[in-house]
C-alpha cells in the first residue's frame, strides 16, 4: 500500500553482486508509470548500472522524469543510468549488422556490451550478397574476442563469419524481412543450423541478450 | 480390363511434342508392378527419353525387367531409357553440392539436366564454412548459364553464390541436417529469403525438378 | 561523421560490373532520411539503374527530394532512376496475375524486368476458376522465354501454366487471401509442390526478385 | 467380465436408424483381437452394413476369422460385410484420383460410397500437369451429383474441377508427396484456399469420410 | 486504355450459364475504385445475381454509388444486386452459429444461400458448453438438407451435430478466439479431425464459400 | 423481433444450478450494444454473479450503462456484478505472476477466483532468474490448495513451483515476450512439457479460465 | 565408480516427504540396464510407491529382474512396486476414454491415480459422435471429484463433459488420429480452446501426468 | 578418378591453422565407405585431432578399419583420433545433463570440449523438478568459465542456472520428450526465451556444437 512499487515489481538490486551483472528493466510490457517508479527506485543506487530496454517514447519520457541525466538512444530503444560508459576491460566485442535495417538491434547489442564494461565496435552493411565487404574486414574480425552478428532475411552471415574466425559467434536474428521470413524465424533457423561450428543463437531481435552474453564471453581472465 | 495400365495411369507420351520435355515417372508412390507396366508401355517409344525418379531397389528391378539396358544410378535413385545421354546443346548447367550428404540429390539434378540435353558439371563439398573452396571455383561458376546449388542445414550457399555470378541460381534445399533443420525446411526458408537477388527455389530434395528447370533455363536460343 | 551514409550503409555500386545487374535499395526497413541519403549518393551515377523497392509514401517523397525526375509507380511501390526504361534485349518476360488483388506484386515484377532491360508483358485475372481465360492466352504464353505467375489463395495457376508451356515458370506467391492462406504460405507450398516440372518459387510478395530472375533467364545469348 | 467387448467398445448399432448410415470400425488403433471381437458382435446383424477401415493384413485376417465371406480390398485397406454392394439409389458419385499414387485413398472413397448405396465411378491420372486429361472428361464430370477429388502434392485439381462443374466438390488431400508437402498439408491448404467456390475439404487420406459425405450429398430426394 | 476495367479484371459473367452459379466479387484486395468499376459493369446485367463479399465501408459506398438499390448487410460485409432475394427452391439450408461472435460469418453463409436460391434459417448461440441448447433444436436440425455449422474456439459443435443428423454438415471455422486458437486454426483442425463422419470443412471465416456449397448440396433434384 | 437479445444470444442463467458456477460473458467478439443488452438482461438476476471478461473501454461503458454499480478492474479487463466479493469458502487459491508484464492476466485469475467464492492471494515478480524470490515464499506456496502460475517468455516458473509444493499447479501462459515466444506459444509448450508432475495448462492469457478452474479445485469438501 | 547408478541418475527418494507424492521413473529414454539399476536401488524402499512409466517389453523385463513381484500392465506400459494398490482416500477420480484407441493412455491415468491413493473408475467409448453414450453416464459423471477425459482426433469430448459437470476436467489429448491430427496436436488445441470453463490440459499421451494431477485434485481435505 | 575421396569430399585440413580448431567429420549423411576413405586420408595427419560425430555402429567400424586405435564412445556416437585427450588449457567447461535421457548428448559436448583442449566436468540428473540438486552444486557451477546445460522436455534448467552464475550458459536442447515436445522444439523455444540473460542456444541434440563453442569461450587469454 505504502509502496506502490511492491504491487508490481520486486527489484533485484543484488544481482550485480550475485552474478556480476546488473538486472535490466524490460519496458515493453510495463506502463510508463511502472517504469517511472522503477527509475525512481534505482535513482538512489548510482553504483549499479541500470539499462532500460525496449523503451518506447513514453517509457523514455518516464525514465527521464526520474533520471534526467540518463543516456537515451532512441534507435536502440535503450536508456542507461548512470549515463557514462564505464571504463572497458576484457577483450573486444565486435558487432556486425548485415544490412541497414538490422542496425537498431545491432546497436542495442553494441551499447549493452559497452555499458557492461567491454570495448565494442559496430560494423554495418556487410551482407553475404557482397562478400568482398566481409572479406575486407578480416583483420578486424580476427582481432575480436567474440563477434555478434545481427542479420535478418536469410540469416546467412553468421555461418560465413564463423568459418573465418577463431572467436565464438553470437548469432542475433532480426525480424527484418517479409513473407517467408516469418518475422525472423527463417534467420533464426538458418543460424541454429549453421554448418560452421562456433555459433550459438539468441532470440529474434534480442540485442540486449546478445550484448550481455558477449560481455560475459569477453570478460577479462 | 484388357489394359491393366489403364487402371492406374494415363501416360502422357505427347508431352515431348507439346512442351519440349518428356514426362517422367515418379516411382515413390507406385508399386513395382505398376512401374513395370509403365516401363513396358514406353519400351515401344525409344524416341522419347523416359526418366524413372525416386526408384528404390525394387522399382529399379521392375524397370530393368522390361528395359534391361536402362541406365541406373542407385545413388540418385534414377533410371533412364534409352540409356545413352543425348548430345548436349545450350549453355552449361553447373550443379554444386554444399556437402557430401547433399550428393545424391545434386546427382539427380545433374543427371536430369544431362538426359534432357544439356552439358552439365557437378562440384562437391563447397560449403560456406570453408569459403576458400567456393572462391576457388569462381571461373567455373562464372562460365555457367545457370547454377543449381544443393544444400541442407543452414542452406546458406545459394545466397553466397548468387552474389558472385551473373547467372540465375536454382536453389535446391536438401533434407540433410537434424533438429531444427526440420527435414530441410530451415534450408528452404533460408533460400526463399536470400538477400541476393537471382535465386529461386524448388522443393526439398527435388533434384529432378532442379535439373529439369536448369535445362529449360539453359536452352539454346 | 563527415559521411552520414557510412553510418548505416556501404553502397555496392560496382555490382553492375561484377554481376551484370545493379544493386536495388530495399526501403522497407530504412528511415526516409536514410533513403534520401542513398538517393543523393546515387544521383552522381546515372550510368547505373537504381530501383527503390517497397517504398511507402514517405520513402517516395525522400527519393524524389534527391532525384526529382525519378519514375514512381505507387501501386508497385517502386521508384526507378534514371526514369527511362532502357532498350530491351533478350527474350520476352510474361507476367501473369491470377486475380486483381495480385496486381501490385505482379506489377513490381513486370517493371523490374523492364528496367533491367527486357521486353515484358502483363496479363491480369487469369485464375484457374475460369480456365477458359488461361487457355485463351495460349499463343502469348508460348511466345515467352520465361513466365512469371503471381497468385495468392490456392496458388494453383503456376502448375496449370507449367503444364502448357515449354518456358520456365517463376512462381510468385502473394499474400492475397485469408484464414488458412497464412499470408501467402498456402500458395507458396502449392507452388513448391507443383506436380508439373519447370516451376521454381520466390518469396511471398517478392515481385522484385521474380522480375530480376526473369530478366536473368531471358538474357540474350 | 463375461463380455470382453465391453472392456474396450460400446457398439452403436442403432446409428443406421438414428442417422441413416451405419457406424464404421476404424481399425488403425485397435488390436487384431479387438477387431475380431467386434466382427463377431456384428455377425448377428446382417441388416446393417459394417465397414472396417484402415485395416492392415492382421486386422483383415481377424475380420475374416469371424466373417469369412466379408469383402476385402487390400489396396483400400477396407473390408465390408455383408459383402454384396447394395442396390444404388440417388445421384452419381464421381471419384477422381489426380495421380496413380492417390489411388488407394480414392478407392476407399469410391468403395465407401458404393457400400452406402450410391452409384459411383472412379477415374485415375487426371492431374493438372496434363490439362487435356481433365478436359477430356467434361461430360462425365458434369453428369455427377457430387465429385470427390483426391490429390496430393500441389492439390490443385479440386480448384480446376470446381471451376468446370455445377456439382459440389469434396476435396480429398492425400499424403502423396515429399519435402514441403508435409505429408499432405500442402495439398490440404491448397484445397482450403480454393479460388473456386463449391469446394469443401476432409482430412488428409480420409477416403472413408469423403465417400461417406458424397453418399449423403447424392442422396435421393 | 479505353476500358479501365480491363486493366485489372476480366469479369466472368458467363459463369451462371456454365456452372449454374454466378461469380462473386471478393472486395478485400481491391481498391474502392476497382469495386466501383465492377459494380458499374454488372449494372447492365440484372439477370445475374452479383454478390460483393468482404466489403468494408468504403467498398460498400463504391458499390452503392453505381448500384444505389443494392442490398447491404454491414455485419456480414455483403452486398447483393439485384437486391431482392430470389424465390427459393430445393432443400432447407440450416446455419448454426456456436456463439454470438460467430454471427457475422454465419450470417454471410445464410445470406449467400438465400441469394443463390435456397430457403435458409439461422440459429445462434448453440455452443457445446450448454448442450441442452443444441438438443432442444433436434427437430429443426433433422429437417435440413444440409447444416452449416460456424464455430470458433474449440470448434467442437460440428462433430456433435454430425452425430445427430442424417444431412451433410459443412463445418465453418471462425477466427473467434485468442491465444492457441491461432486465428481459427484450432477450430479448423478440430473440424478436419471430426470423429463423426459427414463433415467437410471450408476455410476460416469463409461464410460465402459455406453458403455457396450448401446451396449446391441442397439443390432441387 | 420483440427481443433483440434473442437475435444474437441465448443466456444460460441456469448454469449456476446445473454446474455450480455461473456463465461468464466473453466481451471480445461482441459489440458494445450486444454487451449492453446482456447486462440489462442479467440486471434482474442479482442471485447470479455475472463476470464480463476481456472488456475494453467501450464494453465497460456499456456494462456500466445498465449496471452502474458493477465492479470494474481495467487492468484485468473484468467487470463483476453484483460488485461485492462473496464470502469465501474452500481452500486458498494462490496466484503467482512471474513478471510485472504478466500482472493483468494474473489479476484476472485472482479476481475470478475471488468472485467465484474462494480466498485468493496474488504474488508478483517471482521469476526464475532470481530464484531466491520464489524460495522466499515457500511457506505461502505450501499453504495453498492450488497454485496458479502466470508466466510468459520461457514459462519456466510452473515447473519450478510444482517441484516444491504438494498442491496442483494451474499453469497460465501469457503472451508476454517477443520473437520466438510466438505470442505465448513458447511458454505454453514449456508448461505442457513440464518435467515436474502436477501441472496442467490453460490457454494463453486465459486468466478467467485459470481462476475458474482453481476455484473448482479449491472447493470445500 | 563404485556406484554405477550415480553415473546417470540421482534418485529423489525424499520427494514423497517433500511433496506428498513419490518420484516416478520415466523409462522411455533410459536403457534397460539403467532401469534395472534403478529398480534395484528402490528395492530397499517398500515404503515408497515407485511407478515405472512408458516401459517397453525390455524395460519391464529389467524391472522384474530386480523386483519380481512388481505389478505390470503392458497396455498402459506401467509397472508399480510394491504391487498392491494402496487403500483409497479422497474423492472419486473418473477417467473417460473417448474411443477404444485412447484406452492405453486412459488406463495409464487410471492406474496412476489408484497407485497414488485414490478411488478411480474407467469408462470407455463415449465419444461425441454418439452423444447418448455420454448422456447415459450423467450420474456417474456428477459423482466424481475430478474427471480425466482422454480423447484423440477432434478432442471434443472434454468441452462437452465440462459443460455437464461441476468438477474440474483434466483434458488428456492422445495421439490417436491421422493426417491433420498431427499426432495429437489437433486434440490438444481443441482442449486448450475449450469454450466450457473448468478444463485444463496435459501433454499429449501423458496419462501418468493426468492421473497424478487428478490424484492431487481429489486429495482428502 | 584416381582419388575416390575427391568424388564426394574436399577435406579442410588447414582449418586448424586458419581457425584454431580442426574440422570434424559429420557421419550421419555419409556411407560407411565414405567415412572409411576420410579416416584413411586423415591417418597421415596425427598433428590434427579429428572427431567423427554422429557415428553409428557401421560408421564406427569403418573408422576403426582405417584408424584401429581411435577412441570410440558409443553412447556419444563419437570417435576421436589420435585417441589421447590433449593437455587442457583455459577455463573449466561444466556440462550439466538435466535428466538421464539427456546424457548421450551431454556426453558428446563433454568429450568434444576435452578433445579440443579444455578441462571439462559432467554432472547428471539435476533437473528443476528437484531444485535442491542444482542448488547443491552451486560452488562447482560458480567455478566454471562456461556452463553447457543439456535439457529436453520443458528445457527450463538453463534459465535457472543462468540466474545463479556469472559465466555464460550454452543451452543445449535435446529431443528427449514426447507429444508437444516436438522432438526438442519445446525445449529449444524455452531456451531462446530465457528470462535470464547470458543464455545462447545451439541446435537440438547438437552436443558437438555446444562442446566446440564452450571450448572457444573457455580459451586461455
Automatic annotation (TrEMBL), chains A, B, C, D, E, F, G, H:
Domain PurE: 91-220
Matches recorded under Gene3D superfamilies: 3.40.50.1970
Pfam families from the UniProt entry: AIRC
GO MF term set: hydrolase activity
InterPro entries in the cross-refs: P2CMN_synthase_LarB, PurE_dom
Biological process terms in GO annotation: 'de novo' IMP biosynthetic process
Protein's name in the database: PurE domain-containing protein
Amino acid at each position: 500500500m505504502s509502496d506502490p512499487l511492491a504491487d508490481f515489481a520486486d527489484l533485484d538490486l543484488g544481482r550485480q553482486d550475485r552474478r556480476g551483472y546488473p538486472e535490466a528493466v524490460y519496458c515493453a510490457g510495463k506502463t510508463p508509470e511502472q517504469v517511472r517508479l522503477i527509475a525512481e527506485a534505482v535513482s538512489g543506487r548510482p553504483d549499479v548500472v541500470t539499462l532500460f530496454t525496449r523503451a518506447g517514447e513514453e517509457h523514455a519520457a518516464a525514465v527521464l522524469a526520474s533520471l534526467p541525466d540518463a543516456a537515451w538512444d532512441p534507435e536502440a530503444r535503450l536508456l542507461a543510468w548512470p549515463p557514462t560508459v564505464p571504463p572497458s576491460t576484457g577483450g573486444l566485442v565486435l558487432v556486425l549488422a548485415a544490412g541497414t535495417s538490422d542496425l537498431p538491434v545491432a546497436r542495442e547489442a553494441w551499447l549493452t556490451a559497452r555499458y557492461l564494461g567491454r570495448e565494442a565496435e559496430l560494423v554495418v552493411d556487410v551482407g553475404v550478397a557482397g562478400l568482398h565487404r566481409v572479406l575486407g574486414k578480416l583483420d578486424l574480425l580476427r582481432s575480436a574476442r567474440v563477434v555478434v552478428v545481427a542479420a535478418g532475411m536469410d540469416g546467412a552471415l553468421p555461418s560465413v563469419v564463423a568459418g573465418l574466425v577463431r572467436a565464438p559467434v553470437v548469432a542475433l536474428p532480426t525480424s527484418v524481412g517479409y513473407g517467408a521470413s516469418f518475422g525472423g524465424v527463417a534467420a533464426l533457423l538458418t543460424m541454429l543450423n549453421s554448418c560452421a561450428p562456433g555459433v550459438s543463437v539468441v532470440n529474434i531481435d534480442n540485442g540486449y541478450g546478445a550484448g550481455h552474453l558477449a560481455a560475459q564471453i569477453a570478460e577479462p581472465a
